[in-house]
UniProtKB/TrEMBL annotation:
Entry keywords, A to Z: Signal
InterPro entries assigned to the protein according to its UniProt record, in alphabetical order: PhnD, Phosphnate-bd
Pfam families xref list: Phosphonate-bd (PF12974)
GO cellular component: ATP-binding cassette (ABC) transporter complex
GO annotation terms (biological process): organic phosphonate transport; transmembrane transport
Name used for this protein in its record: Phosphonate ABC transporter substrate-binding protein
């Protein structure tokens, strides 16, 4: 994997360095949208080092935008007011289904074992005596955002298969509640505002750490939750990690520069990469549209 990324960095850097500048290469600013997994302040802080490096590389102001929900980022990409975002697979599917020409997937986060999958994790307070979905009948289940892959799409398909009931409030669960994002779900469970919730994690490493990477790891690092007080009650099948996407109409030189920066980040600045990648990960690898065909089909089915 490291050889692949090293080759990619070398190739793209050489291409960018030798490509002649032209009017088509010029942009006045570069705008990055950040999905709502954390509160806005923490999202800005986690991505600031990447923003600063991109600004230095591109030579134009680079701005971070933290819309209130996932759809704010999706609409920004569709409307051309955002140039880049790290989307979840479901958010990418919605973007593609709305306009197949709007964005291009370029990179995907790579786990420590070289894979690029992750999981939707159901969890509850250890002192709640909830150990599985069987214990959740009639209780309040928290989900992040309707456009989140792990925070809703995959659970809304797999959990009904396990319970034999729909996700409608009152049918199996007492209430299905949207919290607004992964961090909000974790805090809601920790505070007892909901009985259980779902969020995302790579499923590797130790539960007590919040696994190696993901929303639980971020929350644990930030002191928002003590993982020793939480218990896993459900785990999805593997989900393809969402792609970093670029607006398709960006100049090719800009695309090459941003791809190079992203691929080289773990070797250039490991601390920055840790924050940007939501924990410990190997790095990034190239990805394309075909990796998300199954998620696109799932979104089509949910919209019917």
């Amino acid at each position: 994997m490291k050889k692949l990324l090293t080759a990619l960095v070398a190739t793209t850097a050489l291409t960018a360095a030798t490509a002649p500048a032209s009017a088509e290469d010029t942009i006045k600013e570069f705008r990055i949208g950040i999905l709502g997994g954390e509160n806005a302040q923490d999202r800005m802080a986690s991505n600031e080092c990447y923003r600063a490096k991109a600004e230095k590389l591109l030579g134009v102001p680079v701005k971070l935008f933290t819309p209130a929900d996932y759809d704010g980022v999706i609409q920004g990409l569709l409307g051309g007011t955002l140039d880049m975002a790290w989307l979840g697979a479901s958010a990418y599917a919605k973007t593609y289904l709305s306009n197949p020409e709007a964005v291009e997937p370029i990179m995907v986060k790579t786990n420590m074992d070289g894979s690029y999958g992750y999981y939707s994790i159901g969890f509850a307070r250890k002192d709640s005596d909830i150990k599985s979905l069987d214990d959740m009948k009639g209780k309040v289940f928290g989900f992040g955002d309707p456009n989140s892959t792990s925070g809703y799409l995959i659970p809304s398909i797999e959990i009904p298969n396990a319970t034999g009931a729909s996700m409608e409030s009152g049918e199996y669960f007492g209430e299905v509640k949207f919290t607004g994002g992964h961090e909000q779900t974790i805090v809601a469970v920790a505070n007892g505002d909901v009985d259980a919730g779902v969020t995302w994690a790579d499923g590797m490493g130790e539960w007590e750490d919040g696994y190696n990477s993901g929303a639980l790891r971020k929350a644990s690092d930030a002191g928002l939750v003590d993982m020793n007080e939480m218990v896993e009650i459900w785990k999805s099948n593997p989900i393809p990690e969402g792609p970093i996407v670029l607006r398709s109409t960006l100049p090719e030189r800009v695309k090459l520069d941003v791809t190079t920066l992203t691929a080289s980040l773990p070797y250039m600045d490991p601390d920055c990469a840790y924050n940007f990648m939501a924990g410990e990960a190997l790095g990034f690898q190239p990805i394309n549209h075909d990796a998300y065909l199954s998620i696109i089909e799932a979104r089509k089915l949910k919209s019917n």
